[in-house]
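Technical note accompanying the year-one report. For the benefit of new consortium partners, we illustrate the data format agreed upon in the data management plan: each record pairs a sequence with a structure-token string. No post-processing was applied to the example shown here.
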Amino acid sequence: MCAFPRSVAALAQPAVFALLTLLACCTVESPANAFDLFATHEVTAQFATADGKPMANAEVRVFAPGNLQTPVETGHTNADGKFVFYADRDGMWSAEARTKTEVARVMIRVGGATQMQQQSRVSPLIVIGGLIGLLALAIWYRKLRLRNR
């Protein structure tokens, strides 16, 4: 049997439920967030000379979106002129291959169409604040009903 009076126990039930719901919301990530956290795109760039021959064993530098000064990855193409790298975010990536006589550059769109078209999400702080507000409203209403009895 509960040691608290019936009114306190009845008042505590919605609070416990709201607290458990709040904890579940804070600890569980949405599937979209979990996917974005671990998402990497494997990108293959193929370089060729002006006459269409593959640029075999060319030195390659890869640049992340918004940073064309510092390469994020370097390496060499294979015999077919291909180079594989992993992109950790969406945007326009740039890759440059150099041989002794030629330079080839490519721009590669990775992921969605543009950053502007991504859907905005509701902040977790707003959700938590709303839940706390609803909990306070439920407690106030419960106290008001107990006083009227």
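Partners are asked to follow this layout when depositing records. Confidence is low (pLDDT under 50) at residues 28-39.
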